[in-house]
Description:
The structure holds 2 protein chains of 2 kinds.
Chain A: H1 23-47, H2 53-67, H3 78-95, H4 102-105, H5 110-113, H6 119-129, H7 133-143, H8 149-156, H9 160-181
Helix pairs in contact in A: 1-2, 1-3, 1-7, 2-3, 3-8, 6-9, 7-9
Chain B: H1 3-15, H2 23-35, H3 37-40, H4 52-72, E1 92-93, E2 96-104, E3 111-117
Antiparallel strand pairs in B: 1-2, 2-3
Amino acid sequence: MALNLDNIVRHPGRAASEQIVETADKDLFLQLLVPVKKHLYNFIRKSMNFSQEADDIFQDTLLKSFRYFHSFKRDKSFKTWIFTIAHNLLKDHFKTGRGLVLIEDADGLPVDEDPSIPRDVRDIYQAAAGLRPRQREIFYLYYYNEFKVPEIVRITGLTRVNVKFILHQARKAVKEIMEVGQ
Amino acid sequence: MKGKRFDEEIKKRVRALEQDIPAGLEETFLEKLDQKPDSLSPVTQRPRRVSPGALAAAASLLIVVLLAVTLLFRPAQAPAAVEQDVFIDYATVEGQPATTYIVNRHDPDMTIVWIEKVPVVAMNNK
């Protein structure tokens, strides 16, 4: 995707503190968002076991990322940056205790009701639903969003060793759950 | 199933279920961006109510007041230790009145008391 960074126009006569975000910034933000948003939305839904609250977290992620768009370094990956914001909001969500009842109060995995979804796909979501929130998040970052370990390190702020360990635990748990189901 | 094959299988299954973003959700987001441009502006700052000059003047004044109060209301210094006189009203040596000499040194812990026997003059010699 070709981006024209020259579109960012600010008022030359104003001090930096008085500058407002121009339409060009908004356009650029929305432009960068296009290839990412569907994966971001599905990542949040999957990480939250398809809870309806996922829509709120997704909305908050977009608003917050737009609010802090000025701090985004244009030479970095926008995808990694916006997923970092999503991770922080998910972390806050689980930390406040709302996430603790998520599995029990989840609105139900859509795979449970849809007969067109193959059983092996259903199994994997049911297995992931049993993971701890942090494990589930890293599981989906790796398997669904296909982030590499160094990228997950940047997103989560965890160490490389920690990410690998959590990923190993998640993989092992999913494998066990899948084997039991067979 | 092991290693890479397991990973590929999981990826395939996880990606099999994807949902489009509901149209209403995106519209709401875009509306919020349009409705609250000021609150979303990352560079908007609250105006400073006190200028730096006024702040510095107030700090200087406060220091001067504190110094004045400290100097005016200094606690009185404790009086220096004063040597106290020692008086002996009456002293006898071997039953006879004696003259006493008391010497106080600068060191308050040391007082020298010297008692001298008064020589008795025999009256019978007259």
